Amino acid sequence: MAEAELPTPNSSDPTQSQSPPGMESSPQEKQQNPAPVATTVKFSIWPPSQRTRDAVIARLIDTLSNPSVLTKRYGTVPADEAASTARLIEDEAFAAANGGAAADDDGIEILQIYSKEVSKRMLDFVKSRPSSSAAPTATPADSVDLSVVASSEEAASTVESEA
């Protein structure tokens, strides 16, 4: 196979730009790149998109209406009540974050305020609900009864093994 001949800077290829006679550039000049043009790219995470806000609402509904650490302690919220409450919590948190913080360059501080407001309002809501919806907790009397039953079973098994 014959090797293809590569064009040289002095070849007659019309697509190659050539320096005018007497102004030949040195190899060092060809390797230097022109100074980069400063471009400003701004990345901002505040305000969140509607899609992000909807995802926060969906997560709140899920947390309030399905078994979670929160619902084990404070009780599960019915889905319709959880949906309306989640929207209210998110709207109030968004308004508080928008009004309570000075805009910084990328919105991180405002986003932190928003996140804290959502969490605070969710906890305030579940704590304010009547305790009757919370999971039943054992009373001291129930604990005593259980220990009496357990010791009775141990005594019965000891008697059976001796017989």
UniProtKB/TrEMBL annotation:
Presence of the UniProt keyword Cytoplasm in the record: yes
Segment forming the signal sequence: none
BP terms from Gene Ontology: lateral root development; mitotic cell cycle
Keyword annotations from UniProtKB, A to Z: Cytoplasm, Nucleus
Single GO cellular component term: nucleus
Compartmental location: Cytoplasm; Nucleus
Ranges of compositional bias, category Polar residues: 8-34
Annotated region described as Disordered, given as residue ranges: 1-37
Positions of the WPP domain: 43-134
InterPro entries: WPP1/2/3, WPP_dom, WPP_sf
Keyword Cytoplasm appears in the UniProt entry: yes
Record-linked Pfam families: WPP
The organism's place on the tree of life at top rank: Eukaryota
Residues in coiled coil: none
Gene3D superfamilies: WPP domain
Name of the protein described by the UniProt record: WPP domain-containing protein
Organism (species): Trapa incisa
